[in-house]
């Protein structure tokens, strides 16, 4: 999903809204511009790099402001086992929680100090953190206190060591993001909160308190995923602002297999809202594959590469000719002298839907833009969020999807994008189409085929609205909101710039012989079932193929025509 938005008609990229959403119990929900499917839905003016978070008044006159995120550091502590002597601590843990924790962990927690409404977690892009005997909770994040309190126990037991480093206002700080310790803190923190201690105690070692930080929903996982051509790293991947946003900063660094000089990033998105497929505006639905996947780009832009925007003066039909915005990312470039690569980067902050049973999934792929590999996909990864029926929000596991050519769903979205156009003129689908003001008060009705120009998109009560100006009919020149589902795109926008579309084939059975030459004298290997490949030629009744995914990506050879099928 994409970036901060600016006036949509002059803006040049997907949009990211950073706002609180209206309460669902209002009879007439005020419409709030909101990031949907990852793009910012706010008025756009001109693209501005490094634009600060948008603060705008809602339609009920209340300011919409970013919500502080939660994150922080921790430090391991080791103490000698001795009788626990509780001390008075007005800023410490609640008495019952402290007592349960001490009995379970065998450590004295009377020195713990809880800092509520702390501004420190956000410096590490965390909701909360524990460091030594200090627990810092960002505003509205008190629910994480039991989890962080158990981190203090772990540190006092001397079981926590720094696994990475992050920067805050005091410089670099050691951070522990061990998944096992995080899971343990979830379980033991909940037991202590409920008072179901059981008989299990954790092991304790002697040692001194360290300065290592343990964070809730830590931004940095740093679990690199390798493709055949390079490495994807989730430099930042964290739920923020009370689980209302998901921040992703993705880096891709090409390796020696990448025979190119410039690499870009593009991604698909599939949004589900309250169990149904959803799109941000009427044009987006025209470039969506039947299963809901589409290229994640603002509907007014021609270039599918994530960090690009408006057209350049020259070479308007070339992917590589478009500039990027630092606030959305950058292309990766290879220095012609040192041969050292700068990373390709994608920066995205999709908003989490207020509706349960919702999700947004992304597949991000690297693609060679210049050099001998131009047009070659360099692998892909997946990420995203999901909200279940109870309203619990979780991140999708950051993981590799392809070593080379992206998935079947990605390629379906590419086909829909290539066949599509940018946002054009909208028209009412039927007579009596309502036009609303910002409080959902009806301003008038459009007749079928009355035209409308979009300026921005918004959401209220789980419904997506398009804001803009009526340009024909009895409501001509009026501005207001129309349900996006009541509008259609007339298809008079500009042609999009194509992405490479690979005709992937699959082996139909196990142990398909791949021959070195068309004479079948030498066999290179036996291919497993469902090996992904593309046909590059034909010789002596055999297909010449290249493997486009998996450990044997780029391997070539010959095989029998009847051994493969369309993916």
From TrEMBL:
Ranges annotated as biased composition (Low complexity): 194-209
Bias (Polar residues): 68-87
Region entry Disordered, spans: 1-94, 188-214
Protein name as catalogued: eCIS core domain-containing protein
Pfam family, any one: eCIS_core
Domain eCIS core, first and last residues per copy: 93-158
């Amino acid at each position: 999903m994409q970036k901060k938005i600016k006036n949509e008609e002059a803006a040049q990229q997907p949009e990211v809204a950073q706002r609180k959403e209206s309460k669902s119990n209002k009879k007439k929900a005020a419409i709030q511009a909101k990031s949907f499917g990852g793009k910012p839905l706010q008025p756009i003016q001109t693209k501005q790099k490094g634009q600060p978070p948008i603060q705008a008044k809602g339609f009920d006159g209340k300011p919409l402001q970013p919500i502080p995120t939660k994150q922080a550091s921790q430090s391991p502590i080791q103490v000698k086992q001795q009788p626990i002597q509780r001390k008075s601590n007005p800023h410490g843990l609640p008495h019952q929680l402290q007592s349960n924790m001490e009995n379970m962990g065998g450590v004295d927690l009377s020195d713990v100090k809880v800092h509520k409404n702390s501004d420190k977690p956000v410096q590490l892009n965390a909701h909360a953190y524990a460091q030594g005997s200090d627990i810092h909770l960002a505003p509205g994040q008190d629910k994480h206190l039991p989890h962080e309190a158990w981190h203090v126990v772990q540190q006092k037991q001397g079981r926590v060591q720094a696994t990475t480093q992050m920067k805050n206002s005091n410089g670099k700080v050691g951070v522990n993001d061990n998944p096992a310790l995080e899971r343990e803190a979830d379980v033991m923190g909940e037991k202590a909160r409920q008072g179901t201690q059981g008989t299990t105690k954790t092991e304790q070692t002697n040692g001194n308190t360290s300065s290592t930080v343990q964070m809730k929903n830590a931004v940095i996982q740093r679990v690199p995923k390798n493709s055949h051509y390079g490495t994807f790293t989730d430099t930042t991947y964290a739920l923020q602002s009370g689980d209302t946003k998901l921040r992703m900063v993705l880096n891709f660094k090409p390796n020696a297999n990448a025979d190119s000089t410039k690499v870009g990033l593009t991604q698909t998105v599939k949004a589900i809202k309250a169990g149904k497929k959803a799109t941000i505006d009427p044009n987006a639905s025209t470039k969506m594959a039947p299963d809901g996947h589409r290229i994640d780009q603002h509907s007014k832009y021609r270039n599918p590469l994530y960090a690009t925007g408006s057209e350049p003066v020259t070479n308007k039909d070339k992917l590589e000719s478009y500039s990027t915005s630092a606030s959305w990312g950058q292309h990766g470039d290879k220095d012609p002298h040192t041969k050292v690569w700068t990373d390709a980067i994608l920066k995205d902050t999709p908003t989490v839907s207020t509706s349960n049973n919702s999700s947004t999934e992304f597949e991000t792929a690297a693609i060679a833009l210049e050099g001998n590999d131009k047009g070659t996909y360099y692998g892909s990864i997946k990420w995203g969020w999901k909200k279940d029926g109870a309203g619990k929000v979780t991140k999708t596991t950051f993981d590799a999807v392809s070593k080379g050519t992206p998935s079947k769903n990605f390629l379906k979205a590419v086909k829909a994008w290539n066949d599509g156009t940018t946002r054009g003129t909208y028209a009412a689908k039927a007579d009596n189409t309502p036009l609303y003001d910002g409080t959902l008060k009806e301003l008038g009705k459009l007749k079928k085929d009355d035209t409308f120009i979009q300026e921005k998109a918004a959401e209220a009560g789980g419904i997506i609205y398009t804001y803009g100006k009526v340009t024909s009919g009895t409501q001509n020149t009026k501005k207001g909101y129309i349900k996006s589902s009541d509008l259609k795109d007339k298809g008079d926008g500009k042609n999009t710039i194509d992405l490479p579309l690979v005709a992937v084939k699959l082996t139909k059975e196990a142990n398909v012989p791949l021959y070195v030459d068309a004479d079948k004298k030498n066999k290179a290997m036996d291919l497993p079932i469902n090996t992904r490949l593309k046909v590059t030629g034909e010789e002596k009744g055999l297909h010449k193929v290249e493997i486009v995914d998996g450990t044997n990506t780029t391997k070539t050879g010959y095989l029998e025509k009847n051994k493969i099928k369309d993916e």
